[in-house]
């Protein structure tokens, strides 16, 4: 990333003015740093993700948004040479504690990726698969859980008559909502969304945004997005990142209208990035 001299303008400390949920923080990022080999990508970042609210991670390409969201459910474990310092606590427990079961952790923090990635199986078995892996409920319970997740994902009415059809026969937007159903069928505490609309057309994007609004309150959602309008539309709090630091974490309506850091102001008004 070419920083055009902006690095000197990074505030010494993150500026916090985020909305606090009555239920408290669902996830606490506490002085967390991450290195890819010798390259440091996150620098002593602290962020409280509020329960039941939608938090957007925004910032220019390469600022560390994906690295941070992937650190939360330890997707970065799959990358060779990754090293971390600090803590990310889910319900008070550091997800990097040696005793943590990573499969269970990912069940508690469902993830949706940029490109819809359904399995080449039926619509139904895409949704029931995570339950078959962990809980192995009976057939009726599986069907009920799948229906519930598909309803929550706003897809039930479109697929209820063809649950046995190949998931790959769905449109891109439907596939992404199917992936959301698959991510929420295990009732995760947190839903992580890494640019979930970047491969979708405007109509499918609007459907996913509506869905995020509908999940709000029942799920804690963290969304990485390049799209500022989208962040402004869907989130309660927004964290602006730059060069691996969280510059400002605040109420979305304030971040997008009167941010407290001049660097945030310049970014949201398109002066760089
Ligand atoms: N697997 C990796 N190995 C080495 N460096 C990496 C790796 N993944 C990311 N990085 C580096 O870490 C920094 C943060 O990247 P990251 O993908 O988290 O940024 P981002 O804000 O999500 O960017 P974008 O918006 O373009 O997706 C960048 O400098 C990037 O080059």
From TrEMBL:
- Keywords linked to the UniProt accession: ATP-binding, Cell inner membrane, Cell membrane, Membrane, Nucleotide-binding, Phosphate transport, Translocase, Transport
Q: Which InterPro entries match?
A: AAA+_ATPase, ABC_transporter-like_ATP-bd, ABC_transporter-like_CS, P-loop_NTPase, PstB-like
Residues forming coiled coils:
none
> Which SUPFAM superfamilies would you find in this protein's record?
P-loop containing nucleoside triphosphate hydrolases
- What are the ABC transporter domain coordinates in residue numbering? 27-268
Domain of life, per UniProt, equals Bacteria
For this chain's UniProt record, which GO biological process terms are given? phosphate ion transmembrane transport
Q: Which CDD domains match?
A: ABC_PstB_phosphate_transporter
Pfam families recorded for this chain? ABC_tran
Which PROSITE patterns is this protein grouped with? ABC_TRANSPORTER_1 (PS00211), ABC_TRANSPORTER_2 (PS50893)
Q: Which GO terms describe its molecular function?
A: ATP binding; ATP hydrolysis activity; phosphate transmembrane transporter activity
Q: GO CC terms on record? A: membrane
The record's listing under NCBIfam families reads: 3a0107s01c2
| Protein name, UniProt field | Phosphate ABC transporter, ATPase subunit
Whose protein is this, by species? Desulfocurvibacter africanus subsp. africanus str. Walvis Bay
């Amino acid at each position: 990333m070419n920083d055009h001299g902006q690095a000197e303008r990074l505030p010494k400390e993150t500026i916090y003015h985020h909305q606090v949920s009555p239920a408290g923080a669902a996830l606490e990022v506490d002085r967390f740093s991450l290195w890819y080999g010798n390259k440091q990508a996150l620098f002593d970042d602290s962020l409280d993700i509020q329960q039941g609210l939608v938090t957007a991670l925004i910032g220019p390409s390469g600022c560390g948004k994906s690295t941070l969201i992937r650190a939360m459910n330890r997707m970065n474990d799959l990358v060779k040479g990754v090293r971390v310092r600090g803590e990310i606590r889910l319900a008070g427990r550091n997800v990097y504690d040696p005793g943590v079961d990573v499969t269970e952790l990912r069940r508690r923090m469902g993830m949706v990726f940029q490109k819809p990635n359904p399995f080449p199986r039926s619509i139904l078995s895409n949704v029931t698969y995570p339950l078959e892996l962990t809980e192995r409920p009976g057939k009726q319970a599986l069907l009920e859980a799948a229906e519930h997740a598909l309803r929550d994902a706003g897809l039930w009415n479109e697929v209820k008559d063809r649950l046995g059809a190949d998931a790959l026969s769905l449109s891109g937007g439907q596939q992404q909502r199917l992936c959301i159903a698959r991510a929420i069928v295990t009732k995760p505490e947190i839903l992580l969304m890494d640019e979930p609309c970047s491969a979708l057309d405007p109509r499918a994007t609007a459907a996913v945004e509506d869905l995020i609004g509908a999940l709000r309150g029942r799920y804690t959602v963290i969304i990485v997005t390049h799209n500022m309008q989208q962040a402004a539309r869907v989130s309660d709090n927004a964290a602006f990142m730059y060069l691996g630091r969280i510059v400002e974490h605040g109420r979305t309506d304030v971040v997008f209208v009167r941010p407290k850091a001049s660097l945030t102001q310049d970014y949201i008004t398109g002066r760089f990035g």
